[in-house]
């Protein structure tokens, strides 16, 4: 499949999203220290079968920790995250978070859109990626709850395919607050949650991240994960940056109904519509640029069927958003 053309970041900010007055400027030569992870956990390792994996851009499940930011870059990222904390909101999973930070911070925007990081993520994944076409899926920040013992985030899968979870604060200097993932499939996790059964401790993995600016890369819609509670007062901040497959044609896991529950109403429909329109544009561009001279009319009919299904699903999600309910697997304890 040909690689899609990136979708440019919006030239105007939505109402209510003003840029920070003062912040560091992102400099990839000083702020990045990209390293490769030592190990890759495959979707096969997690228990997925060939049929489901064939619908994914890569067989990667999740990596071991790898470095993204230099010490200076991590310090700048922490400064920006603290500035943005004044805009923290709450939702059904997370007590304190900032979404849409790339509208407010040039540093966060430039890091999230960085071609150097994007190329690096493509290398790790083993498939081309592009920065996510929905700005609220870029540079998502999670902050620790005020109450000790409350999990930062519940067990869940993401509504985007590919993302890295990076510690902005140093995880070695706090008690608790671990990022964890389930060594199994989302179907197994659902069965456990539906039955009200606890997650076997031996199937919960807590990667050891050595410091601020280190991350794990995952196919977030396939890997069940969460962030644990702090056990002592401390500052804990992570950043999640999303990507889309560079090759158009894989199923889209963007869930408008879930975005509708957490993002500003005057922004959510526009950004989702723009994302779907981009996918349609790239599907049409591929067909225009690569004509298939064939007597088999079914090939062309199937192409329009895929386009029709894409737009019909988007229209259905938008119309039915009022029926949305929060989806997660709870705290699992």
What does this structure look like?
This protein has 333 residues and is an alpha+beta fold. Helices cover 34% and strands 16% of the residues. The protein is built from eleven helices and 13 strands. The chain has helices at residues 28-31, 43-46, 50-53, 71-84, 101-104, 106-112, 115-125, 186-195, 256-262, 265-289, 297-319; strands at 40-42, 60-63, 66-67, 96-98, 129-131, 140-143, 153-156, 162-167, 179-182, 204-205, 214-219, 225-227, 237-245. Strands 3, 4, 5, 6, 8, 11 and 13 form a seven-stranded antiparallel beta sheet that branches. It has a four-stranded antiparallel beta sheet with strand order 7-12-9-10, with no helix packed on it. The chain has a two-stranded antiparallel ribbon with strand order 1-2. Helix 10 (265-289) runs antiparallel to helix 11. It is globular and about 70 Å long. The mean pLDDT is 95.
Number of helices: 11
Assigned CATH class of the domain at 28-252: Mainly Beta
Uncertain segments of ≥5 residues (pLDDT<50)? none
Beta-strand portion reads: 15-25%
Structural class: alpha+beta
Please report the total strand number as a whole number: 13
CATH third-level topology of the domain at 28-252: Jelly Rolls
Mean pLDDT: 95
| CATH H-level homologous superfamily name of the domain at 28-252 | q2cbj1_9rhob like domain
Radius of gyration: 20 Å
